[in-house]
């Protein structure tokens, strides 16, 4: 079966949904998502979206905060463009029905988070992502030009070279092969423009606050198709996720520290003043390494986030979801500190794009966490991610809407998916075992603190696992589990390769073999591409 459209969007977070709404008046849109529409990292975002709004704030301040957090590896032109587009991004979200929290006087209740010099975080209590997804999904579902394909997972991109079985330049993207998970059939989706909005890859690590869908699918597909991938070594570990055996790494928003919470050791000693002048409001990479060090030095399983000095009503009103969730695990954050540990949270690298979100493969765009746009550098500033998703969705839409009116070059005949001699698998345990082994190796060897020896060891083990996966992939009918396993193995390899190339410590990449920052030799992106 083949489905054709003007725009193929893979992913249903803030970036994918925003793009769909921006282009829907200009053509037919196919929106593919591997679970339900709301199953995205956006839906789990607590803190909010950063944008300059008050007279005390300025674009220059937000730019400086972003550059400092990114350890000056961010692209200054991209940073300025995104920051200056912030107010319009907020207006777009409000126009689509997003309701941000207001004060009693109806002015917006802006939060401050780590690394920010001013209060500029628009939020919907502590469930901002859920509110954004609600509004955007309602708008998308009501648009007649948008066709939604839930429970469909992309397998691989279709390029002109793949269709013609030979190398060709420029190698246009023609769409993607997509598995209908329910029926087990691989469908062909042809499109003039293909947009990867697949989010991140936190599930490549054993401990993550990402949803189950975060398996790096778009990254892996783009890399296999020949796109440039950059800065994969910069995986952000959120400093504060709930430490509880049944919590599944529930995230404790940075906004809690923004409202005065203090990180303490088990004995009650506050420790962040030993690591950074901003103390508990230091950028995430510094706070995560500080917690990691405190746990190792003192032999503790966690540290504690304490906001008990605030009034109980203030805590419950500002953080109702966090408060209720903690209570469900027997922790009353109004009267006792919250046990927390770092967990994999956000990939600052990704598929390299230009300032319009387009990759080096014509007609293939990447927006949101899957992309490396130049905004985040070596460490993302809190709440800049949702902002980036809206801004680049708009910019990619501008390009696509302009081109869609131009005469189209003829598409070659795209062959249907060929399963060859594949058969049903009776060894699903192999998939589960390889999945666990990759995630454990990444956590142990490619975590918050790294070494060349550990990275080489991880690379060797991942290569062995990839060989097993390759045999399994071509021998048996594909399933969503096998597709995700193949993708996290690819992403793990990319993270390790980029980490081995960076011979310094900068932002989220800290190695004991090169503990200092090297602006002379290493102040540049780490870019890799699949060689054939």
From TrEMBL:
GO terms for molecular function: L-aspartate oxidase activity. Its main location: cytoplasm. It comes from the Bacteria. It is an enzyme of class 1 (oxidoreductase). Its EC number is 1.4.3.16. Pfam families: FAD_binding_2 (PF00890), Succ_DH_flav_C (PF02910). Pathway: Cofactor biosynthesis; NAD(+) biosynthesis; iminoaspartate from L-aspartate (oxidase route): step 1/1. It catalyses: L-aspartate + O2 = iminosuccinate + H2O2. Its cofactor is FAD. Residues 6-386 form the FAD-dependent oxidoreductase 2 FAD-binding domain. GO terms for cellular component: cytoplasm. It is found in: Cytoplasm. Keywords: FAD, Flavoprotein, Oxidoreductase, Pyridine nucleotide biosynthesis. The keyword Oxidoreductase applies. Catalyzes the oxidation of L-aspartate to iminoaspartate. PANTHER family: L-ASPARTATE OXIDASE, L-ASPARTATE OXIDASE, CHLOROPLASTIC. NCBIfam families: nadB, PRK09077.1. This is L-aspartate oxidase.
